[in-house]
UniProtKB/TrEMBL annotation:
Entry superkingdom: Bacteria
Pfam families per the UniProt record, alphabetical: ParB_N
SUPFAM superfamilies assigned: ParB/Sulfiredoxin
Classification via InterPro entries: ParB/Sulfiredoxin_sf, ParB_N
Domain ParB-like N-terminal: residue ranges: 3-84
Name of the featured protein: ParB-like N-terminal domain-containing protein
Length: 182
């Protein structure tokens, strides 16, 4: 796959994307991108032949939001990340300041997909077939800000419980999330 760096203004959100995001989770996504911009090169936005986002729709929206953020607002977000030194915060803030002058997005084209394949890709790109190993999260990443990295707190609370209890808790949480979206 060949990636390209193009003007962000050329990428459009996929209005038909069936995924939604709450304001709280959107702000977490913005923070995630702000504190770790290198990840955008590792996870390019997948676009069709018209540069409509097929994968990375929420990241596209977050980047469009970052374009309009003031330097003070960016620094306020960076200040909430306790892992960053002042020098790292300043370097990241400078990166975003330069980026805002000519906003770009790293993309990969999926222009050879049929309409049916595009629809399939949109769903499969967002599907979560796997589950988190809560013991591994606790043992290998316990000192990391996992909730900032999009791991829900309720998952972190499942370390040390049986698989049967985990399955019940996951089912309850999914039902709760479904009710909240309805």
């Amino acid at each position: 796959m060949k990636t390209e760096e193009i003007a962000l203004s050329r990428v459009s959100e996929n209005e038909a994307n069936p995924r939604t995001i709450t304001e709280a989770n959107f702000q977490k996504l913005v923070k995630s991108i702000l504190v770790f911009p290198k990840m955008l090169q590792l996870r390019p936005i997948v676009v069709d032949e018209t540069y409509k986002a097929l994968g990375g729709n929420m990241r596209t929206r977050a980047l469009c939001h970052i374009v309009s953020m003031t330097p003070e607002a960016i620094m306020d977000v960076l200040d909430t990340d306790q892992r960053l030194t002042d020098a790292e915060k300043l370097a990241i803030a400078n990166y975003w300041s330069q980026w805002q002058e000519q906003p770009t997005a790293t993309i990969v084209k999926a222009s050879d997909l049929t309409e049916a394949q595009k629809k399939e890709f949109i769903i499969k790109d967002n599907a979560g077939f796997g589950d988190w190993d809560t013991e591994a999260l606790a043992n290998q990443f316990g000192d990391q800000p996992l909730t900032d990295w999009a791991i829900p707190q309720w998952i972190l609370g499942m370390a040390g419980i049986s698989n049967e209890q985990k399955e019940g808790a996951i089912l309850q949480q999914k039902e709760k999330e479904h009710r909240n979206q309805a």
